[in-house]
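Lay summary. Proteins are chains of building blocks that fold into shapes, and those shapes determine what they do. In this project we predict the shape from the chain. Here is one chain we studied, written as its sequence of building blocks.
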Amino acid sequence: MTTTRILAGAMSGTSADGVDIAITQITGAGLSMSAKLLHHHHLPYLPSLRETIFTLRHTGQTSLRTIAQLGQDISLAYAAAIHQSLQAAKLQPTDITAIAAHGQTLFHDAPLTIQYLDPSLLANQTNIAVISDFRRADLAAGGQGAPLVPFADYLLFRHPAKSRILLNLGGIANLTYLQPGGSPSDVIAFDTGPANCVLDHIARQANLPQGHDQNGSLSLTGQAHSQIATTAIHNWKHALTPPPKSADTPEMIAAFEQAEKSHHANLSTPDRLATACLMTAIGIHLALSHLPTHPQEIIASGGGTLNPRLLHEIKQLTKLPLQTTDDLGLPSPAKEALAFALLGAATLDNLPSNLPSVTGASRSVILGSITPKP
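And here is the predicted shape, written in a compact code that computers can read:
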């Protein structure tokens, strides 16, 4: 008898724009699992919460009371997003097997990480079991604790004849390389540099209304400074390092600003945004040298797919066909949350879901901690 259950994948990325929920029907178990998105919902963070997260990540300084309050506020935002998702999907908490929650990244420099969430508060607020803290078991096994989405990439997008890159353009850009007909041990994945984090930093400095370059409209009007973009990506300490590797956004923002200073640049906001797009594309282009064969196509997801300038620069440098997960039936904004639903299902099945070939861990491990519903 085939197992079918519904999990809610819950994700807030390094862009700290809010919580994405993917109500996901999962059929089967192990490497034969398949997923069907029932509903996707996005709940933006309150501006005050977003500002607190950015300030903490930028300065690394806060009070104990602020850090405690932050954990509560993030968890309540997750709970509100779950409630709204269930209401929109016409489902009850009893219909959901578990919430698989990533939490908010506050710091990541393997083997140290903070993916912030109070799973007990989330479980209490929703009356649903919570699976959380997905990175720590891989870190304990000597891995980077990231990226974790390649497990879902393999389940959902492997192809018997095509070599593919699954490219996530969130705050950070990371890729998953899938060999044609490959096994999980053949998967290669790693962070390639910034995607939206530098763009969003520039937008905040310019006080753009939404806190980001809406639909990449300003990026399109800018002139990219190729020398600054090249210097910026090489300033990032992991640019030329072979995988496994993972990163965090503050170091990438610092790399961009150092490049601007070294070139004595005083660029306009549109030119800075265009240059940041080129920095991302150069990072992805450099990453191709770490792959065993040249991929045949790119399938992109994440908020960066809404920036046409960013996609143009990537296509120009990689010279590869590029489509989005939307073209394959999975809404791009829902992809990472759905991936965590699959990771949560693996946890419930006692199935290891880290990929040591990706993270560098010494062995396969079961990810996540389970907090029962009250």
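What the prediction tells us: The chain is about 40% helix and 20% strand.
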